[in-house]
Structure of Dehydrogenase:
Amino acid sequence: MSLDGKVAIVTGSGRGLGLAYAQELARRGAHVVVNDVDADATAEAVATIEASGGRAVGVTAPVGPTETAKELVDTALAAFGRLDALVTNAGVLRDTVLWKMSDDDFDTVVTVHLRGTFTTVREAVRHMRQAGEGGRIICIGSPTGQRGTFGQTNYAAAKAGIVGMVRTWALELKRAGITANTVVPVAATAMTATVPYFAAAVRAEADGEPMPAFFRHDLGFGTVDDVAGLVAFLASDAAAKVTGQVIGVGGDRLQIWTHPEAALTAYREGGWTYDALVEAWPTTFDGATQSVGERFPELPARFQPATP
C-alpha cells in the first residue's frame, strides 16, 4: 500500500528524526507540510523532498500556540486540499535535576512537547472529523516517558502525558475512523550523540559504516531511517485497525509496550491501615514493586569510550 494522494503534517521536521519521517512519507507518495522554528532548516527540508520527486510546503513557526496549529492545518488544506495524517515530533530539551530546574526549564519543554501535541492534534482532528474520511494521529514519545531518566523531569512529564492523551484519543476518535498511536524511537540523533554509551554507534554512522550489531540488535538502537518506516506504516491504510498503542522502534527491534496494569492486588477486610501495611509490606507487597529508569546491558569492552 502506498500513501499516494495522502497529505501529512510533520512538526519539527527540519532535521533529525522529523526530517526522516517527512522524507519517508513523501517517498511513499504523501504530500507533506514541513515545520521547524528555523526558516533555513524548513526550506532545506522542503528542497530535499522536492529534489527526490516529492511534494512539500513549509511552515516556519514554534509548535505550542494554537495559532501555529491553525497555520499548519490551513497550509495543508490550501496547498493540497486535504489532511490525512499528523505526526507530532517537535520538541526541545532543558535537562537538569529537579532541585535546579527553573520554571522556564519546565514550562518550555511542556509547552512544546505536551501543549504542542495537544493543540496540533486538536486542530487536525477538528478538520478530519468534519471531512469524514478518517485520519491518522502519530505522536512521538520517548523511553523517558515510559521509564524515567535522571535529569529529565520536564521531558518525562511531557512524554508520559502524550501517551495518556493518545490512549484517550483512541477512544474518542474511534467512531470517526481516526487512529491515534505513540511511537517511541531509539536512534542516533543530536541528543544521543552526547551520550558516551552510544559513542561507538554514533561514530559508525557518522563515518558511513554499518552500526555494530550490539547496538542494532541488543539495544534496539539504530538510525533515524530505522524509525521512519513505522511512522509511514501507521499513516497508511494498512494500519487502519492499529490504535491506542505505544510502539517502540530502533535498529532491528520493534516493541509494543504494555499499558499500565496492576502488578499485584491484595485485599484486607476493614482496609489497609498503617499497622497492617507495616506488617504486610515486606511479605506481601515488596516483591511486586516496579523498577524505574532505563536498563542497559554492560557495554562490551570494544565499545567502551576511551579514557583520557
Q: What stands out?
A: The chain has ten helices and eight strands. The beta strands are 7-10, 31-36, 56-60, 85-88, 135-140, 178-185, 246-250, 253-256.
